[in-house]
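Dear H.,

Thanks for agreeing to be a second pair of eyes. The structure we're designing against is below in token form, covering all 605 positions.
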């Protein structure tokens, strides 16, 4: 089913599911469970989705696929966990478990169940063009992050997510409005602990002690200068201290004092600046007062950056559903939903809850009508992703324009590096302008691939390398996680062969299309990597290797030449990826031109 058919059918089916979803919402609210203990909640929602036997993932989570059993899918996340809050709403269905859905997760879950049930009915009656994957995620409010665990799992990768959507109620957005901005919408977050160690003693003889309490107070006050004096004033950051602890008696100077807080940044470049400034202030303030400062920083989730194409595609659909669209909302809140952007384009939509009661408050209770609103927004997001995945145009789905904080590019531990086919990756990325190729900016080893050939290749040769999966370099396998988009390479700072050798990238839709076409033609097959279950390998079959060699010997020099002898359907499937791949080069060309036109920076007062 394509065109307006899926939208019309899904909207009608969704309307029929809302009343049941409201009852489910109340049931989930009454039985709220804390992070890591969401067993009953996950089982109940999976059963509502018609998949009571859905496999467990990330401890207590579930993933439920609706629609075509193979090929790409559009994933929609809803959170299972509640908060350790004593509810004060007074409704008959208030939680009595000691936990409370004070962040709207009960609404999100019920809405996703309604949409999943509607999609299942449409799939059975007329078919869905792209599967919907309901992601029931644990531990959004707790540690370790459920999103990080699910996103990095082999089970999630096997579903081939072409996009991941999230919808969240937001008290700062007016009712009837949906915030759907492109780019960064939530901050990165790092929790910190400061421990000031002094010398204890009698409160009446402070000159004989080194009192850590006033030192810690000086530190906390000095931290407030980070945002105003260490960060560009046009950038949003937050440095907040939420807990202080010292001593037990009023007449005793304690040995130590402790503060705990959080660092938030919308711009990934500001994240390391905040960390360094924190350490410097603690160290020098403590030394100035004869104390010792110890800083511990626990790295949290990266900034949440919406895919620009996904966000823009959602706007007309949201308006059609009757919502006012806000494209400017940003906040220094954080959500581990950002981890999914490492593996697929993401879109987080905020549904206005309004009112004076904030999220996480013991009286936060969205009306039952919020279930239908959230479900409608989820449907709009699904249709937006669907329109892009099925579009014949050149613009691909790619991660959002604002990069995430990468740290150093990582490589799966224990995995032989040759399996990522270094020479092939470098040739392909260079040919698409995804990395530099100047003598001053690369390793000496990067001038040759593993076979000893020069890596300065043509576009056609690079596309040939993409399909052949680096047969020329010896190994016949290429990790899907090594196929990175332009944005991924930019944010990891990959500029040399040794950088590319360590990339954990993402599976972009165009790569999935290529692999699917090869599978249908009997030229390749997928299998899990025995060395690392998070990695999916694509191996050429003997027939595939013979076909590639034959086409190569016949003079195939471009992608089109390579596939022109495949059966019709497979040729079309592979050719469908060409515009997306070409678009990557166009985007990079535009970026390079913009950089060349930008005037040099000048120093000023």
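And this is the sequence the design step returned. I haven't edited it by hand at all.
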């Amino acid at each position: 089913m394509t065109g307006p058919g899926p939208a019309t059918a899904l909207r009608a089916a969704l309307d029929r599911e809302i009343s049941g979803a409201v009852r489910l919402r109340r049931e989930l609210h009454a039985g709220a469970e804390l992070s890591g203990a969401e067993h009953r909640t996950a089982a109940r929602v999976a059963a509502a989705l018609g998949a009571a036997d859905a496999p467990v993932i990330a401890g207590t989570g579930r993933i439920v696929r609706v629609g075509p059993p193979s090929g790409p899918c559009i994933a929609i996340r809803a959170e299972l966990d509640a908060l350790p809050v004593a509810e004060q709403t007074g409704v008959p269905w208030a939680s009595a478990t000691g936990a409370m859905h004070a962040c709207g997760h009960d609404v999100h879950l019920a809405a996703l169940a309604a949409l999943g049930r509607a999609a299942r009915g449409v799939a059975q009656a007329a078919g869905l063009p792209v599967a919907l994957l309901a992601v029931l995620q644990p531990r959004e409010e707790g540690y370790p992050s459920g999103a990080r665990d699910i996103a990095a799992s082999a089970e999630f990768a096997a579903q081939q997510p072409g996009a991941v959507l999230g919808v969240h109620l937001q008290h700062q957005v007016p009712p009837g409005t949906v915030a759907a901005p492109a780019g960064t919408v939530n901050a990165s977050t790092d929790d910190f602990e400061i421990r000031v160690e002094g010398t204890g003693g009698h409160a009446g003889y402070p000159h004989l002690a080194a009192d850590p309490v006033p030192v810690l107070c000086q530190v906390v006050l000095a931290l407030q200068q980070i945002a105003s004096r260490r960060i560009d004033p046009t950038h949003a950051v937050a440095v907040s201290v939420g807990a202080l602890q010292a001593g037990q008696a009023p007449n005793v100077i304690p040995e130590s004092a402790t503060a705990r807080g959080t660092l938030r940044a919308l711009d990934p470049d500001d994240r390391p600046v905040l960390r360094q400034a924190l350490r410097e202030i603690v160290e020098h303030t403590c030394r100035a007062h004869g104390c010792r400062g110890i800083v511990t920083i626990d790295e949290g989730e990266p900034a949440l950056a919406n895919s620009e194409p996904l966000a823009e595609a959602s706007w007309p659909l949201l308006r059609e559903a009757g919502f006012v669209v806000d494209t400017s909302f940003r906040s220094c809140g954080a959500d581990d939903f950002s981890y999914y952007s490492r593996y697929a384009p993401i879109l987080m939509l905020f549904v206005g809850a309004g009112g004076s009661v904030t999220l996480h408050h013991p009286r936060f209770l969205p009306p039952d009508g919020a279930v239908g609103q959230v479900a409608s927004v989820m449907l709009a997001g699904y249709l937006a992703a669907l329109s892009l995945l099925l579009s014949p145009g050149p613009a691909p789905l790619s991660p959002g324009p604002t990069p995430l904080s990468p740290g150093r590019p990582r490589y799966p531990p224990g995995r032989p590096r040759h399996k990522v086919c270094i020479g092939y990756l470098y040739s392909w990325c260079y040919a698409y302008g995804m990395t530099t190729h100047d003598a001053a900016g690369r390793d000496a080893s990067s001038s040759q691939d593993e076979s000893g050939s020069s890596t300065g290749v043509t576009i056609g040769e690079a596309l040939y390398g993409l399909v052949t999966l680096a047969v020329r370099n010896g190994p016949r396998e290429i990790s899907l996680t090594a196929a990175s988009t332009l944005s991924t390479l930019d944010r990891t700072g990959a500029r040399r062969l040794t950088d590319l050798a360590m990339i954990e990238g993402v599976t972009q839709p165009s790569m999935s299309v290529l692999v699917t076409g090869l599978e249908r033609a009997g030229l390749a097959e997928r299998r899990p990597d025995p060395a690392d279950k998070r990695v999916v390998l694509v191996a050429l079959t003997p027939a595939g290797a013979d076909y590639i060699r034959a086409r190569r010997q016949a003079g195939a020099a471009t992608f089109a030449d390579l596939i022109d002898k495949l059966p019709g359907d497979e040729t079309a499937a592979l050719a469908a990826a060409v515009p997306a791949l070409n678009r990557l080069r166009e985007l990079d060309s535009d970026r390079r031109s913009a950089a060349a036109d930008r005037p040099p920076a000048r120093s000023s007062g």
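Two observations from my side: The chain is about 40% helix and 20% strand. Residues 417-594 form a domain with the Arc Repressor Mutant, subunit A fold (CATH 1.10.10.10).

Warmly,
E.
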